[in-house]
Fold this sequence. Notes:
single chain, transcription regulation, Rossmann fold, Arc Repressor Mutant, subunit A, CheY-like_superfamily, two-component regulatory system, Response regulator transcription factor, Sig_transdc_resp-reg_receiver, 14 strands, alpha/beta
Amino acid sequence: MKTLLIVEDDQSLNKGIALSLAHNELHIEQAYSLAMADQIISSTQIDLILLDVNLPDGSGLDYCERIRGTSQVPIIFLTANDMEPDIVTGFALGADDYITKPFSLMILRARVMAVLRRSDALTHERIVVGLLEFDFGKMEYFKNGRPLLLSKSEQKLLRILVTNRGNILTREQLIDRTWSQEAVFVDENALTVAIKRLRAKIEEEPSSPQYIKTVYGLGYTWTEGPVL
């Protein structure tokens, strides 16, 4: 059974969401402040957090950033702030989804279950190729047994390349799937720089890459195999 934490100071809305989401596969915890959320998180294994942005004892955005320092638990923002910069900020801080008020409880339930399914798919996703080990669920990456420090964009880019190994991905596809939720516009130079940095971290000879191959005039492909 999955445990979902609702952090929302509007008690009527909090209870309404809890009633809507409660079923045999979900256990609901409720908090009306960040302090209450801290108490619950310290004693309970949480699988997803529904987080209001404006709370009586602080900002949900700041709280999300703090959580991301130690955990990758899925977070869905619930907020009346529907301005594009607020939404972009939410995703940049590590949100998995962003739902603006007012919203349909039916749609909320569907999006909660979608995020949980994605989380389940990532939890056990571990890929080993040669001396490289990638655990996309835990967001842990190793080369020769030593941890690799990858930026958020590098992690996304690596995952897209590896899970589409053998296929050519155009530069446009890679840009759209790597940065679509984080910026209004990203030019092709950002992709070139990200590829260069990723190669420097995972390749033995970055100037003659074994894994991330350039397909001139088209894009890039992950070519090494077999992958376990």
